[in-house]
Amino acid sequence: MPTIVPVILCGGSGTRLWPRSRAVKPKPFLSLVGDCTLFEAAVRRCPASGGFSPPVVVTGGKHVEHVEAQLDDMNGAQVIVEPSARNTAAAIALAAYRLPEDAVMLVCPSDQHIGDADAFASTAWAAADLASEGWLVSFGIEATAPETGFGYLRQGEKISDTGYRTAQFVEKPDLERARSFLAEGGYAWNGGIFAFRVKDFIVELEHHRPQIAAGVKEAVTKGHEDGQRFHPDAKVFGNVPSDSVDYAVMENTERAAMVPAIMNWSDIGNWHALHEALERDTSGNSVRGTGRVEMVDCRNVLVDSDGPHVAVIGLENVIVVVDGNDIMVTTVAGVQKVGKLAGAVNQ
User: Fold this and answer.
1) Which contiguous run of DSSP H or E holds residue 133?
2) H helices of 295-336, where?
3) Which end of the chain is more exposed for a tag (fewer CB within 10 A), N or C?
């Protein structure tokens, strides 16, 4: 069996979940669904008892304390501290140049909700089996709605009992095109979860984005360890080109594959996505937080209050969030615009 090393990417500020998510404590470190944070859940989905190696967490300096506080004193975990944000290709490369070449990297964002951990694990092992044969594998998340906020993967020819070639990476579509994907079938959401051998990823990165590869390799060579932390050279890393792993590698390699993933997945990318991931009453309403909430004649309303009493009457498809002195109210249709608010931008 291949050695699977979870590589957990932990960055960003989650502005579309303002005012609960803020730069000082963004979405991964909040308990949004269930009794643990999204980051803690990401770590717990890859336990040693399930055959996973200790994780490598790639995060920014301002998040290190949150990461280490929520790692549960996991022996062998490594925290790579990014000196600056250079997008996912460079972040993954930092881990790759620190790992054995035959290890399979299981790249996981730290801010997603996966309701079926067993299905995640079985999909991870199916992906790792393909990765051990030289494929660069994406999780093809089951598309359950015509979402316009995700990229899509088009399924190609079958290459194993559980895997397929990736025939096409599709940019975020408009609504009409997203509906056509669901009607046609064979399309899945690209959730940003990948599995590939270290050496295969490095070969592809060096071929398609040599500047990123060379810069990250030099930053790692000139970096230093501090306990479980590793600090790449800040000056060198700051000059690395910024690019996503999709653009840099996955859309260019001839060895792109996908495994279908049906695991109750959500990116919790906005307040509506969170509402859909929560338990709701018969009218579709949800309540979070410690504050007292009253609802009368409401449908599909989420109220999240950290203290103040909130009373909502006769509303439908509305989100109300109270965080200290900040109050945010939006329709479901407006949730994508929350990140444009001054409070979110200047948090």
Assistant:
1) none
2) none
3) N
- Tell which CATH architecture fits domain 4-266: Alpha-Beta Complex (3.90)
Which 3 state secondary structure label does DSSP give 267? coil
CA–CA dist 62, 25 (Å, integer): 9
Q: Is the pTM of this model over 0.85?
A: yes
Per-residue tokens: 141: 């998340």
Q: Is the pLDDT of residue 248 over 90?
A: yes
Kindly tell me the sign of the dihedral angle through the C-alpha atoms of 204, 193, 109, 198.
negative
Alpha helix stretches (DSSP H) within 188-311: 198-208, 210-221, 234-238, 245, 271-277
- Reported as a single tens digit per residue, the pLDDT across 258-291 is 999 999 999 999 999 999 999 999 999 999 999 9
Q: How far apart are CA 330 and CA 272, in angstroms?
A: 10
Q: What is the pLDDT of residue 347?
A: 62
Per the CB < 8 A criterion, the answer to whether 28 and 37 are in contact is yes
Cβ neighbours around 1 below 10 Å, total: 9
**DSSP-assigned beta bridge partners for residue 141:** 189, 261
**Which amino acid appears at position 66 of this protein?**
H
Other C-beta atoms within 10 Å of 340: how many?
A: 11
Burial class (CB in 10 A: 0-12, 13-18, 19+), 266: middle
Side-chain-side CA neighbours of 72 within 13 Å: the count stands at 12
User: If you compute the radius of gyration of the chain from its CA atoms, what whole number of angstroms results?
Assistant: 20
User: In the chain, where do the E strands start and end?
Assistant: 4-10, 56-60, 78-82, 104-109, 113-114, 136-142, 151-158, 164-170, 187-197, 224-226, 229-231, 256-261, 265-266, 286-289, 293-296, 299-305, 310-313, 316-323, 326-331
Residues of the chain with CATH 3.90.550.10: 4-266
The Cα-based distances of 5 to 64, 100, 124, 243, 260 in angstroms read 20, 10, 11, 23, 20
Q: How far is CA 305 from CA 31, 37, 149, 155, 290, in A?
A: 14, 18, 27, 42, 6
Using DSSP, how many helices (H) and how many strands (E) does the chain show?
11, 19
Tokens of 15: 């502005």
